[in-house]
Specification:
The complex is a heterodimer of chains A (345) and B (511). Helices cover 37% and strands 17% of the residues of chain A. Chain A is of the alpha/beta class. Chain A starts with a helix and ends in a 5-residue tail after the last helix. Chain B is built from 20 helices and two strands. In chain B, strands 1-2 form a two-stranded antiparallel ribbon. Chain B is globular and about 60 Å long. Classes of the chains: A alpha/beta (345), B mainly alpha (511). Chains A and B meet through helix 2, helix 3, strand 7, helix 7 and helix 8 of A and helix 6, strand 1, helix 14 and helix 19 of B.
Chain lengths: 345, 511
């Protein structure tokens, strides 16, 4: 199954909300795990103490925030405390390595993002999150967009942007996280190959300098996910000119999608989820799956996801759904890496 | 309503609610305490408190963090002065002259100067912040891109190359060692793995906080322990003599210069108080007629460093509030506090939550004022820590430093790095190399490498592109002239060569 087909099903079944509309949760929409039991007995008293969540990024970034929100939701649901252990560095490698060294008793949970999938795609000695770990839940899936300054005068939409960039002969710039093999760099390759335009990618590993570069006119455009630049969108500073999805989400109904501008490639997604070791006792695994999947629909977590624009496409995947998402993503990355001439180990 | 009326309104809101007053006082005292305890910092306190801010109003949560920010930056000066252990990286240059002052029996004077100058730097930057947040933020992000920040780093390294080293070569070698350490781990732009020796934990790079703790705290304990064993240990002399007003007025130009430097560094996203403190100190040395007195316990060294780092606190709030761009770890956590209350910092905050903004401004103003009051009261008591016998104090400091090193990223390797830096620092101190130079090379190296690579991408890999950007060009020329001046001073003007100094105090910088 391709990622496109997989997500198409989600599109059909999910009510897309608008940016200004109220909460889908508060408005009484159903949530993905409403049918799961409201409570579950602790198997053999597990967990008898607080869980530890290893987070491979700092507390203030996107991963740190989703870890905090999920930990809070699980605690609200089960009464079990979760201590977050942030181990940032090495694009998630350090946290993953630290997690793999923890005991396989179900007391340690890992938060990770799609970087784990792309890292495995490039180097198969890195853990495959779909096979070497058990995904409990994927709780955030989002798409990317291309932004320009709202008061930009040289171009004002995708068509004029492409025309202007092409005329600059490679001198135009876009801010993103263009590390080797990253989702951003791969997607930009899709776009530049299809349009024929050349654009210099400027890599900023932290959000603030990246957004500041566009706001201050240091670069011509920005590649980002909508939840991360929401304050700039709400304040009218930034303007999206392309949504990197096949279809337009209703929140961005006036922004062209890939289909609208005749870009024919399967979009890559940013996703975040929670994992445990393979081989933990089955009853403990079942309880953890219930706790994390049910917590996804806790009011506090849904509010958090809405604040991050994470409800524009379905963010929920259960264990099997997460495995499919990761496996498909790894396959996509591998194909592109080979095409890009990168050494796939 | 004009800014002054808004400020009064914010003040009334702040002090008319007893809960607000309690949170304000908690932030002031908590920031000072966590800043002052070696090994932990205001960031530790902020990380602990972050989830609890969900139970406060947005106003109270942001106010608490901004107050902790102001007083935490000051708090780290106390241990830097009394024990040569900077409470935070931004207090490292304070130790250069502050600790020698303690050894000279002038601890009270050094701490008093830190109190007054931290308060002054913080108050002035808060006033500027209140007067012109939006236009300053817009100017900063428009005028300063990666090429300008790289040029600033180059200038900073050129100025700092001779801080703490006996010779020109040893100064530059110290900086280069720091730069070498900075490249361990993933390259910040392309994500290429470097010098990890197949150890995944090294991919995270060498963090500067364990390095600072090792070079300053651990090596100092080794030095003092050696003296104790040899029977030459002398407990620091206790004094609570504060600097006189005339002494401070005599340093008015150093204060003004450091406020400008600190404010300027503070408004640049990702730069902040650490660079501000180093630049403030370096410029003090550069402009001084008595360069040889720096590193031996010169009051101006403490004044310049502490004024600059607190001036950066108000400035760092400008890009955060006006643009939603956090400049450092604590301001990034403030974004988390905003988000917990369904808010985003940025231009809309001024429109939709003006009350919140002005309560925060008022709280920062009074937090800086309270440094003056509580700082003096605290100083009278905290100096008595020097009475604790070394054999009891040293293990406590080592324990706290170990906890502090581990707390940064939860990695055991950081504790190993800290002790390694301690051993290396112990030997480097007696060899004429500069531990300050290594630390500065490490801190600036990470910023410099990233901004250089970004600048090259922006300038299409043509170095001549720097010549088309006046601010970057000006800073590069200033760096080259500074470098030329130090070469001239070291090789052609023998009489101006910096004198050698004791084993554990840095000699002066030259420029």
């Amino acid at each position: 199954m391709t990622l496109k087909k997989y997500l198409a099903g989600s599109f059909a079944s999910l009510a897309l909300i608008t940016l200004s509309s109220g909460s889908a949760f508060a408005a009484g929409h159903s949530c993905a795990t409403d049918s799961m039991p409201a409570s579950m007995d602790k198997p053999g008293g597990f967990p008898a103490r607080a869980l530890t969540m290893v987070v491979p990024y700092g507390p203030a970034g996107g991963s740190g925030q989703v870890a905090q929100a999920m930990a809070q939701a699980v605690t609200e649901l089960t009464g079990v405390a979760i201590n977050r252990d942030h181990k940032p560095g090495g694009s998630g490698t350090v946290g993953m390595t630290a997690y793999m060294a923890t005991p396989k008793d179900g007391y340690s949970v890992l938060e990770h993002i799609d970087d784990a999938a792309s890292a495995h795609a490039l180097d198969s000695s890195r853990p495959n999150p779909a096979e070497d770990l058990v995904p409990l839940v994927t709780s955030q899936i989002t798409f990317s967009q291309i932004y320009i300054r709202a008061n930009e005068t040289r171009f004002n939409d995708w068509e004029s942007f492409v025309e202007w960039v092409t005329a600059q002969n490679g001198k135009a710039t876009i801010a993103n996280v263009s590390k080797e093999g990253s989702m951003e760099r791969v997607t930009m390759k899709f776009i530049t190959d299809a349009t024929g335009m050349q654009i210099q990618q400027i890599s900023f590993d932290k959000g603030a300098p990246r957004y500041g570069a566009l706001a201050g006119g240091q670069v011509d455009a920005l590649f980002e996910q909508p939840g991360d630049v929401r304050n700039f969108l709400d304040s009218g500073k930034f303007k999206p000119i392309l949504t990197i999805l096949k279809e337009r989400p209703s929140a961005f109904a006036d922004v062209p999608s890939l289909t609208d501008v005749a870009l024919d490639f399967d979009p890559l997604f940013r996703f975040r989820g929670f994992y445990v070791h393979k081989g933990i006792p089955a009853d403990r695994l079942e309880w953890l799956q219930w706790a994390f999947q049910k917590a996804y629909c806790e009011e506090s977590y849904q509010k958090f996801n809405e604040s991050k624009y994470m409800t524009l496409i379905e963010s929920f995947r259960d264990t099997q759904g997460s495995r499919d998402l990761i496996t498909t993503t790894i396959g996509q990355y591998r194909d592109v890496y080979k095409e890009m001439g990168l050494e796939v180990k | 309503m004009n800014a002054f009326d808004n400020f009064l309104q914010g003040t009334v809101t702040l002090f008319s609610d007893p809960i607000n007053i309690l949170i304000f006082l908690g932030g002031v005292i908590g920031g000072m305490l966590f800043g002052a305890i070696p090994g932990v910092s205001m960031l530790t306190l902020a990380a602990i408190l972050l989830p609890f801010t969900a139970h406060l109003s947005a106003e109270q949560g942001i106010m608490l963090f901004s107050v902790m920010y102001c007083t935490g930056v000051y708090g780290g000066a106390i241990t830097a002065i009394l024990f040569n252990i900077p409470g935070a990286p931004e207090n490292a240059p304070t130790a250069f002259d502050g600790y020698p002052m303690t050894k000279n029996g002038q601890a009270g004077k050094a701490v008093g100067a830190a109190v007054m100058c931290s308060a002054l730097g913080g108050v002035v930057s808060t006033i500027i912040m209140m007067a012109a947040t939006a236009p300053i933020a817009d100017w900063a992000i428009s005028a300063f891109g990666p090429p300008e920040i790289f040029a600033l780093v180059f200038f900073g390294l050129a100025v700092a190359a001779s801080v703490g080293a006996k010779t020109f070569w040893k100064g530059w070698l110290s900086i280069l060692i720091g730069l070498m350490i900075a490249v361990v781990g993933l390259d910040p732009v392309g994500g290429i793995e470097r010098y990890d020796f197949d150890m995944p934990y090294l991919l995270a790079g060498i963090h500067f906080i364990p390095t600072i703790l090792g070079f300053f705290a651990v090596s100092e304990i080794f030095v003092q322990a050696e003296k104790k064993v040899r029977g030459s240990y002398e407990a620091p002399k206790l004094s609570v003599d504060f600097p006189s007003l005339s002494e401070l007025i005599a340093h008015k130009f150093a204060v003004i210069r450091s406020i400008v430097i600190g404010f300027f560094c503070g408004i640049l996203p990702g730069i902040g108080a650490t660079l501000a403190a180093f630049m403030g100190y370096n410029e003090a040395v550069r402009w001084s007629k008595n360069k040889e007195e720096f590193g031996k316990g010169k009051l101006e060294g403490v004044i310049s460093s502490e004024t600059a780092n607190n001036a950066a606190t108000g400035a760092a709030m400008i890009p955060l509030l006006a643009l939603g761009l956090p400049g450092g770890a604590l301001t990034a956590m403030m974004v988390g506090v905003f988000q917990m209350h369904d808010m985003q910092p940025g231009p809309l905050v001024f429109l939709t939550s003006a009350d919140l903004v002005w309560v925060v401004f008022a709280a920062m103003f009074f937090a800086n004022c309270s440094i003056l009051l509580i700082g003096f009261l605290e100083t009278k008591t905290i100096i008595n820590l020097l009475r604790i016998p070394f054999q009891f104090l040293a293990p406590l400091i080592l324990l706290l430093a170990t906890v502090g090193a581990y707390a940064v990223r939860g990695l055991t390797i950081d504790i190993i790095v800290m002790f390694l830096a301690g051993v290396v620092g112990f030997f480097l101190r007696r060899s004429g190399y500069s531990i300050a130079g290594i630390v500065l090379g490490l801190i600036l190296g990470k910023i410099g490498e990233q901004t250089f690579a970004q600048a090259m991408q922006m300038l299409h890999f043509e170095f001549s592109g720097f010549f088309d950007r006046p601010i970057a060009l000006g800073l590069l020329i200033a760096g080259v002239l500074t470098l030329g001046g130090s070469i001239y001073g070291a090789f052609f003007k023998k009489s101006a060569a910096p004198p050698t100094t004791g084993s554990d105090t840095p000699p002066p910088a030259s420029g």
